[in-house]
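stage 2 :: seqdesign
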């Protein structure tokens, strides 16, 4: 598996491809990265539509691996159009299920609690086997396609007349 960081040109090419699909203004306004396998296997991961929507909003605020997202539950609720208590309850269930971890944050100057940060370690751990399976299936499809292209084609059927065919 290639884990090398994409080059600047590769990033620009990808952004240009996305601009071609979504338009430049929409891409310039911002975009969110979420591995497809989380969407594809949400049922197997025990996630419903509201849970995935909450994860999307958390991911929307996660720009760097070492800077955990920390939007408020009220902010998420307003975006989705649900009650903040529903967000709180769903996050609590995802935490109980081991998918996300809430990390308490406090203002160093005042000691007052700030919005929680969220870690995705559990979700990453449980989604990884699904990702590996998807990668394996993709590689197998590619190998099958190469094998089909390289398979020898049968020779055209030719009629061979026997020695007695002229006598008839």
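stage 2 :: out
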């Amino acid at each position: 598996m290639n884990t090398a960081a994409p080059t600047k040109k590769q990033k620009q090419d990808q952004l240009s491809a996305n601009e071609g699909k979504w338009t430049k203004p929409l891409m310039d306004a911002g975009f969110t990265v979420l591995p497809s396998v989380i969407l594809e296997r949400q049922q197997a991961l025990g996630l419903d539509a509201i849970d995935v929507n909450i994860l999307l909003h958390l991911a929307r605020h996660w720009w760097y691996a070492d800077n955990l997202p920390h939007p408020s539950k009220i902010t998420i609720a307003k975006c989705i159009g649900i009650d903040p208590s529903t967000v709180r309850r769903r996050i609590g269930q995802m935490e109980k299920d081991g998918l996300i971890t809430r990390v308490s944050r406090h203002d160093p100057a005042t000691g007052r609690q700030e919005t929680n940060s969220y870690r995705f370690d559990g979700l990453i751990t449980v989604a990884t086997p699904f990702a590996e399976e998807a990668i394996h299936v993709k590689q197998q499809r590619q190998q099958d396609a190469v094998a089909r292209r390289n398979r020898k084609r049968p020779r055209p059927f030719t009629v061979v007349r026997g020695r007695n065919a002229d006598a008839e």
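stage 3 :: structure notes
- The longest helix spans residues 121-150.
- The chain has one domain: 11-150.
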